[in-house]
Write a structure and sequence with these properties.
Chain lengths: 184, 210
Amino acid sequence: MNMPEDDDGVVVSRVRQGDLEAYGELVRRYQGSVFGVCYRLLGERQEAEDLAQDAFLRGYQRLDTFDLAYPFGPWIRRVAANLCLNRLQRNRPVTLGLDDEHGWRGAPPGPTPEGATERRQEAEAVRQAVISLPPMYRAVIELRHYQEASYDEIASTLGLPLSDVKSHLYRARRMLARRLKGHA
Amino acid sequence: MHDHPSTWHLGDEAIYDYLDRSLGGQARIEAERHVQSCPECALRLREAQALFAQIASVAAPRLATDLASGVVASLQAARKASVRWQWVLAGQAAAATAALAALGVHLQRWVEQVLHDPAFAAVRQAGALLLADVSGWLPPFLDLVPSSPMRIAPLRLSLPHLQGPVSGWAALAGTALLLGVLGNALLLRSPGGVVPTKADRGNGAAAPGR
Protein backbone atom coordinates (compact mmCIF):
# COMPACT_ATOMS: atom_id res chain seq x y z
CA MET A 1 0.00 0.00 0.00
CA ASN A 2 1.35 3.41 -0.93
CA MET A 3 1.88 5.90 1.85
CA PRO A 4 -0.01 9.16 1.27
CA GLU A 5 2.19 12.06 0.16
CA ASP A 6 3.01 14.64 2.77
CA ASP A 7 1.59 18.10 2.25
CA ASP A 8 4.02 20.64 0.72
CA GLY A 9 4.08 22.59 3.97
CA VAL A 10 5.11 19.53 5.95
CA VAL A 11 7.91 18.77 3.49
CA VAL A 12 9.11 22.38 3.51
CA SER A 13 9.22 22.28 7.31
CA ARG A 14 11.40 19.17 7.15
CA VAL A 15 13.70 20.94 4.69
CA ARG A 16 13.96 23.89 7.02
CA GLN A 17 15.09 21.53 9.75
CA GLY A 18 17.96 20.47 7.51
CA ASP A 19 16.53 17.46 5.66
CA LEU A 20 17.95 17.79 2.14
CA GLU A 21 16.30 14.59 0.93
CA ALA A 22 12.96 16.21 1.68
CA TYR A 23 13.89 18.97 -0.72
CA GLY A 24 14.59 16.29 -3.30
CA GLU A 25 11.01 15.17 -2.81
CA LEU A 26 9.76 18.68 -3.58
CA VAL A 27 11.97 18.80 -6.67
CA ARG A 28 10.48 15.50 -7.87
CA ARG A 29 6.97 16.84 -7.39
CA TYR A 30 7.47 20.02 -9.36
CA GLN A 31 10.37 19.44 -11.72
CA GLY A 32 8.07 18.71 -14.67
CA SER A 33 6.08 21.91 -14.37
CA VAL A 34 9.14 24.02 -13.57
CA PHE A 35 10.92 22.61 -16.60
CA GLY A 36 7.77 23.40 -18.63
CA VAL A 37 7.94 27.05 -17.60
CA CYS A 38 11.62 27.24 -18.52
CA TYR A 39 11.14 25.47 -21.82
CA ARG A 40 8.26 27.64 -22.93
CA LEU A 41 10.20 30.77 -22.02
CA LEU A 42 13.61 29.79 -23.34
CA GLY A 43 12.69 27.47 -26.20
CA GLU A 44 15.74 25.27 -25.76
CA ARG A 45 15.76 22.00 -23.88
CA GLN A 46 19.24 21.96 -22.36
CA GLU A 47 19.07 25.55 -21.23
CA ALA A 48 15.60 24.94 -19.81
CA GLU A 49 16.90 21.98 -17.78
CA ASP A 50 19.80 24.06 -16.46
CA LEU A 51 17.54 26.93 -15.49
CA ALA A 52 15.03 24.56 -13.89
CA GLN A 53 17.82 23.19 -11.73
CA ASP A 54 18.98 26.73 -10.91
CA ALA A 55 15.42 27.62 -9.96
CA PHE A 56 15.30 24.80 -7.41
CA LEU A 57 18.67 25.83 -5.99
CA ARG A 58 17.49 29.40 -5.80
CA GLY A 59 14.25 28.22 -4.21
CA TYR A 60 16.24 26.40 -1.52
CA GLN A 61 18.30 29.52 -0.79
CA ARG A 62 15.13 31.57 -0.38
CA LEU A 63 13.02 28.97 1.37
CA ASP A 64 12.84 31.10 4.50
CA THR A 65 10.72 33.60 2.55
CA PHE A 66 8.21 30.92 1.53
CA ASP A 67 4.87 31.22 3.31
CA LEU A 68 3.66 27.79 4.41
CA ALA A 69 0.05 28.88 4.02
CA TYR A 70 0.42 28.73 0.23
CA PRO A 71 1.25 25.88 -2.15
CA PHE A 72 4.86 25.42 -3.15
CA GLY A 73 4.25 24.83 -6.88
CA PRO A 74 3.17 28.30 -8.00
CA TRP A 75 5.95 29.87 -5.92
CA ILE A 76 8.75 27.78 -7.37
CA ARG A 77 7.35 28.17 -10.91
CA ARG A 78 7.46 31.93 -10.48
CA VAL A 79 11.00 31.77 -9.21
CA ALA A 80 11.76 29.85 -12.41
CA ALA A 81 9.88 32.33 -14.61
CA ASN A 82 11.83 35.18 -13.08
CA LEU A 83 15.16 33.46 -13.56
CA CYS A 84 14.32 32.80 -17.20
CA LEU A 85 13.24 36.38 -17.71
CA ASN A 86 16.52 37.60 -16.19
CA ARG A 87 18.37 35.29 -18.53
CA LEU A 88 16.42 36.45 -21.57
CA GLN A 89 16.88 40.10 -20.76
CA ARG A 90 20.60 39.68 -20.09
CA ASN A 91 21.44 37.47 -22.95
CA ARG A 92 20.76 36.51 -26.39
CA PRO A 93 18.38 36.67 -29.27
CA VAL A 94 15.78 33.94 -29.29
CA THR A 95 16.82 30.61 -30.74
CA LEU A 96 14.18 28.09 -31.56
CA GLY A 97 14.82 24.60 -30.29
CA LEU A 98 14.68 21.85 -32.87
CA ASP A 99 13.99 19.08 -30.45
CA ASP A 100 10.49 18.02 -31.43
CA GLU A 101 11.72 14.53 -32.00
CA HIS A 102 13.04 14.39 -28.45
CA GLY A 103 9.82 14.62 -26.58
CA TRP A 104 8.04 17.76 -27.74
CA ARG A 105 4.40 16.93 -27.29
CA GLY A 106 2.60 19.93 -28.70
CA ALA A 107 -1.13 19.43 -28.79
CA PRO A 108 -2.62 16.05 -28.02
CA PRO A 109 -3.04 13.93 -31.18
CA GLY A 110 -6.34 14.00 -33.05
CA PRO A 111 -8.37 10.94 -33.90
CA THR A 112 -6.67 10.35 -37.28
CA PRO A 113 -2.97 10.45 -38.18
CA GLU A 114 -3.64 13.43 -40.46
CA GLY A 115 -5.46 15.23 -37.65
CA ALA A 116 -2.62 14.49 -35.25
CA THR A 117 -0.05 15.91 -37.67
CA GLU A 118 -2.17 18.98 -38.25
CA ARG A 119 -2.62 19.63 -34.56
CA ARG A 120 1.06 19.12 -33.90
CA GLN A 121 1.91 21.61 -36.65
CA GLU A 122 -0.53 24.07 -35.22
CA ALA A 123 0.92 23.72 -31.72
CA GLU A 124 4.40 24.17 -33.14
CA ALA A 125 3.29 27.36 -34.90
CA VAL A 126 1.88 28.67 -31.64
CA ARG A 127 5.05 27.76 -29.79
CA GLN A 128 7.15 29.59 -32.35
CA ALA A 129 4.88 32.60 -32.19
CA VAL A 130 5.13 32.68 -28.38
CA ILE A 131 8.88 32.24 -28.39
CA SER A 132 9.30 35.08 -30.89
CA LEU A 133 7.62 37.56 -28.52
CA PRO A 134 9.78 40.02 -26.57
CA PRO A 135 10.86 38.50 -23.22
CA MET A 136 8.48 40.46 -21.03
CA TYR A 137 5.50 39.64 -23.26
CA ARG A 138 6.50 36.00 -23.19
CA ALA A 139 6.67 36.11 -19.42
CA VAL A 140 3.20 37.59 -18.99
CA ILE A 141 1.75 35.04 -21.42
CA GLU A 142 3.46 32.24 -19.51
CA LEU A 143 2.23 33.45 -16.15
CA ARG A 144 -1.31 34.21 -17.26
CA HIS A 145 -2.03 31.32 -19.62
CA TYR A 146 0.06 28.49 -18.22
CA GLN A 147 0.40 29.38 -14.54
CA GLU A 148 -3.08 30.93 -14.38
CA ALA A 149 -1.75 33.80 -12.31
CA SER A 150 -4.03 36.78 -11.75
CA TYR A 151 -3.04 40.25 -12.95
CA ASP A 152 -2.05 41.16 -9.39
CA GLU A 153 0.09 38.06 -9.02
CA ILE A 154 1.82 38.75 -12.35
CA ALA A 155 2.49 42.32 -11.25
CA SER A 156 3.98 41.13 -7.98
CA THR A 157 6.05 38.39 -9.62
CA LEU A 158 7.54 40.60 -12.32
CA GLY A 159 7.70 43.78 -10.27
CA LEU A 160 5.51 45.69 -12.71
CA PRO A 161 2.64 48.10 -12.17
CA LEU A 162 -0.77 46.55 -12.82
CA SER A 163 -1.34 48.83 -15.80
CA ASP A 164 1.87 47.53 -17.43
CA VAL A 165 0.77 43.94 -16.90
CA LYS A 166 -2.51 44.63 -18.66
CA SER A 167 -0.92 46.48 -21.53
CA HIS A 168 1.81 43.83 -21.97
CA LEU A 169 -0.80 41.10 -22.01
CA TYR A 170 -2.93 43.00 -24.47
CA ARG A 171 -0.04 43.66 -26.83
CA ALA A 172 1.31 40.14 -26.53
CA ARG A 173 -2.06 38.68 -27.44
CA ARG A 174 -2.52 41.07 -30.36
CA MET A 175 0.91 40.04 -31.66
CA LEU A 176 0.08 36.38 -31.26
CA ALA A 177 -3.28 36.83 -32.95
CA ARG A 178 -1.61 38.51 -35.95
CA ARG A 179 1.13 35.89 -36.20
CA LEU A 180 -1.28 33.00 -35.88
CA LYS A 181 -3.80 34.23 -38.39
CA GLY A 182 -4.45 31.33 -40.73
CA HIS A 183 -3.42 28.70 -38.22
CA ALA A 184 -6.71 28.69 -36.37
CA MET B 1 -19.51 50.98 -23.13
CA HIS B 2 -22.80 52.61 -24.05
CA ASP B 3 -26.38 51.46 -23.79
CA HIS B 4 -27.38 50.97 -27.37
CA PRO B 5 -25.97 47.78 -28.91
CA SER B 6 -25.77 49.22 -32.43
CA THR B 7 -23.66 52.23 -31.41
CA TRP B 8 -20.92 50.62 -29.33
CA HIS B 9 -18.76 47.54 -29.20
CA LEU B 10 -16.59 45.84 -26.66
CA GLY B 11 -12.95 46.74 -26.97
CA ASP B 12 -10.35 43.97 -27.33
CA GLU B 13 -9.09 44.75 -23.86
CA ALA B 14 -12.56 44.34 -22.39
CA ILE B 15 -12.94 41.02 -24.21
CA TYR B 16 -9.61 39.81 -22.82
CA ASP B 17 -10.57 41.01 -19.34
CA TYR B 18 -13.84 39.13 -19.68
CA LEU B 19 -12.05 35.91 -20.64
CA ASP B 20 -9.45 36.44 -17.91
CA ARG B 21 -12.33 36.79 -15.42
CA SER B 22 -10.99 40.22 -14.52
CA LEU B 23 -14.20 41.92 -15.58
CA GLY B 24 -16.43 41.74 -12.57
CA GLY B 25 -19.81 42.85 -11.29
CA GLN B 26 -22.05 44.95 -13.42
CA ALA B 27 -19.47 45.32 -16.21
CA ARG B 28 -19.40 41.55 -16.70
CA ILE B 29 -23.19 41.29 -16.80
CA GLU B 30 -23.37 44.15 -19.33
CA ALA B 31 -20.69 42.57 -21.49
CA GLU B 32 -22.51 39.23 -21.53
CA ARG B 33 -25.78 40.90 -22.39
CA HIS B 34 -24.14 42.91 -25.14
CA VAL B 35 -22.43 39.92 -26.74
CA GLN B 36 -25.79 38.14 -26.99
CA SER B 37 -27.23 40.96 -29.04
CA CYS B 38 -24.18 42.05 -31.05
CA PRO B 39 -22.98 39.59 -33.72
CA GLU B 40 -19.77 41.56 -34.29
CA CYS B 41 -18.68 41.39 -30.64
CA ALA B 42 -19.81 37.76 -30.43
CA LEU B 43 -17.48 36.99 -33.36
CA ARG B 44 -14.57 38.82 -31.74
CA LEU B 45 -15.20 37.00 -28.48
CA ARG B 46 -15.08 33.66 -30.34
CA GLU B 47 -11.83 34.71 -32.03
CA ALA B 48 -10.29 35.59 -28.67
CA GLN B 49 -11.48 32.29 -27.21
CA ALA B 50 -9.86 30.49 -30.15
CA LEU B 51 -6.61 32.37 -29.53
CA PHE B 52 -6.68 31.39 -25.85
CA ALA B 53 -7.29 27.78 -26.83
CA GLN B 54 -4.38 27.90 -29.28
CA ILE B 55 -2.06 29.25 -26.60
CA ALA B 56 -3.25 26.56 -24.20
CA SER B 57 -2.50 23.88 -26.80
CA VAL B 58 1.24 24.36 -26.33
CA ALA B 59 2.58 21.84 -23.88
CA ALA B 60 6.19 21.46 -22.85
CA PRO B 61 8.15 18.32 -23.63
CA ARG B 62 8.62 15.71 -20.97
CA LEU B 63 11.63 16.17 -18.77
CA ALA B 64 14.07 13.45 -19.73
CA THR B 65 16.22 13.52 -16.60
CA ASP B 66 15.57 13.58 -12.88
CA LEU B 67 16.68 16.95 -11.52
CA ALA B 68 16.21 15.96 -7.89
CA SER B 69 19.42 13.96 -7.54
CA GLY B 70 21.50 16.78 -9.09
CA VAL B 71 19.87 19.43 -6.92
CA VAL B 72 20.29 17.42 -3.71
CA ALA B 73 23.91 16.60 -4.60
CA SER B 74 24.65 20.30 -5.21
CA LEU B 75 23.08 21.25 -1.90
CA GLN B 76 25.00 18.56 -0.03
CA ALA B 77 28.27 19.70 -1.63
CA ALA B 78 27.49 23.31 -0.72
CA ARG B 79 26.71 22.29 2.85
CA LYS B 80 30.00 20.37 3.17
CA ALA B 81 31.90 23.33 1.69
CA SER B 82 30.17 25.64 4.13
CA VAL B 83 31.21 23.45 7.09
CA ARG B 84 34.78 23.39 5.78
CA TRP B 85 34.76 27.18 5.50
CA GLN B 86 33.48 27.51 9.00
CA TRP B 87 36.47 25.47 10.25
CA VAL B 88 38.81 27.61 8.17
CA LEU B 89 37.26 30.74 9.61
CA ALA B 90 37.48 29.42 13.15
CA GLY B 91 41.14 28.50 12.62
CA GLN B 92 41.92 31.91 11.19
CA ALA B 93 40.15 33.65 14.03
CA ALA B 94 42.06 31.59 16.64
CA ALA B 95 45.40 32.26 14.94
CA ALA B 96 44.64 35.98 14.66
CA THR B 97 43.71 36.14 18.33
CA ALA B 98 46.89 34.31 19.36
CA ALA B 99 49.06 36.53 17.16
CA LEU B 100 47.48 39.71 18.48
CA ALA B 101 47.74 38.50 22.08
CA ALA B 102 51.44 37.77 21.57
CA LEU B 103 51.87 41.22 20.09
CA GLY B 104 50.06 42.81 23.02
CA VAL B 105 52.25 41.05 25.60
CA HIS B 106 55.34 42.01 23.66
CA LEU B 107 54.31 45.65 23.35
CA GLN B 108 53.55 45.84 27.05
CA ARG B 109 57.01 44.57 27.90
CA TRP B 110 58.57 46.97 25.44
CA VAL B 111 56.71 49.98 26.88
CA GLU B 112 57.79 49.03 30.39
CA GLN B 113 61.40 48.76 29.30
CA VAL B 114 61.29 52.03 27.39
CA LEU B 115 59.87 53.87 30.38
CA HIS B 116 62.87 52.75 32.41
CA ASP B 117 65.37 53.36 29.67
CA PRO B 118 67.76 56.35 30.27
CA ALA B 119 67.38 57.27 26.63
CA PHE B 120 63.68 57.83 27.19
CA ALA B 121 64.45 60.19 30.09
CA ALA B 122 66.73 62.12 27.77
CA VAL B 123 63.97 62.37 25.23
CA ARG B 124 61.55 63.61 27.86
CA GLN B 125 64.04 66.24 28.93
CA ALA B 126 64.71 67.26 25.34
CA GLY B 127 60.97 67.64 24.84
CA ALA B 128 60.69 69.95 27.83
CA LEU B 129 63.56 72.05 26.57
CA LEU B 130 62.04 72.23 23.11
CA LEU B 131 58.75 73.39 24.57
CA ALA B 132 60.54 76.05 26.59
CA ASP B 133 62.39 77.19 23.50
CA VAL B 134 59.30 77.36 21.34
CA SER B 135 57.29 79.17 23.98
CA GLY B 136 59.80 82.03 23.80
CA TRP B 137 58.53 82.80 20.30
CA LEU B 138 54.90 82.70 21.26
CA PRO B 139 52.90 85.79 22.26
CA PRO B 140 53.50 86.98 25.82
CA PHE B 141 50.23 85.59 27.22
CA LEU B 142 51.39 82.09 26.29
CA ASP B 143 54.83 82.67 27.69
CA LEU B 144 54.42 80.51 30.76
CA VAL B 145 57.89 79.04 30.62
CA PRO B 146 60.94 81.35 30.68
CA SER B 147 62.67 81.51 27.35
CA SER B 148 66.09 79.92 27.35
CA PRO B 149 67.67 79.22 23.99
CA MET B 150 69.40 75.93 24.32
CA ARG B 151 70.83 73.51 21.95
CA ILE B 152 68.92 70.29 21.91
CA ALA B 153 71.17 67.34 22.11
CA PRO B 154 70.83 64.91 19.24
CA LEU B 155 68.29 62.28 20.08
CA ARG B 156 69.68 58.85 20.41
CA LEU B 157 66.82 56.71 21.43
CA SER B 158 67.69 53.12 21.51
CA LEU B 159 64.74 50.85 20.91
CA PRO B 160 66.21 47.41 20.77
CA HIS B 161 62.95 45.56 21.21
CA LEU B 162 61.16 47.35 18.42
CA GLN B 163 63.91 46.43 16.01
CA GLY B 164 63.49 42.76 16.78
CA PRO B 165 61.50 40.65 14.31
CA VAL B 166 58.82 39.53 16.75
CA SER B 167 56.62 42.62 16.99
CA GLY B 168 56.60 43.36 13.27
CA TRP B 169 55.75 39.82 12.25
CA ALA B 170 53.16 39.42 14.94
CA ALA B 171 51.45 42.67 13.92
CA LEU B 172 51.55 41.70 10.25
CA ALA B 173 50.27 38.19 10.82
CA GLY B 174 47.53 39.32 13.18
CA THR B 175 46.30 42.02 10.82
CA ALA B 176 46.42 39.73 7.78
CA LEU B 177 44.54 37.00 9.59
CA LEU B 178 41.91 39.42 10.83
CA LEU B 179 41.43 40.75 7.31
CA GLY B 180 41.21 37.16 6.08
CA VAL B 181 38.52 36.34 8.62
CA LEU B 182 36.52 39.41 7.63
CA GLY B 183 36.92 38.72 3.90
CA ASN B 184 35.90 35.10 4.22
CA ALA B 185 32.94 35.97 6.38
CA LEU B 186 31.78 38.43 3.71
CA LEU B 187 32.26 35.80 1.00
CA LEU B 188 30.21 33.30 2.95
CA ARG B 189 27.40 35.79 3.29
CA SER B 190 27.25 36.67 -0.43
CA PRO B 191 24.13 35.32 -2.20
CA GLY B 192 25.98 33.49 -4.96
CA GLY B 193 26.01 35.84 -7.89
CA VAL B 194 22.45 35.38 -9.14
CA VAL B 195 20.36 38.49 -9.64
CA PRO B 196 17.72 38.56 -6.90
CA THR B 197 14.17 38.65 -8.11
CA LYS B 198 11.03 39.99 -6.61
CA ALA B 199 9.49 36.51 -6.54
CA ASP B 200 12.22 35.40 -4.17
CA ARG B 201 11.03 37.72 -1.49
CA GLY B 202 7.99 35.69 -0.62
CA ASN B 203 4.84 34.00 -1.84
CA GLY B 204 2.13 35.94 -0.15
CA ALA B 205 0.32 36.38 -3.48
CA ALA B 206 0.67 32.85 -4.75
CA ALA B 207 -1.86 31.45 -7.14
CA PRO B 208 -4.21 28.75 -5.97
CA GLY B 209 -3.60 25.15 -6.83
CA ARG B 210 -0.62 23.33 -8.16
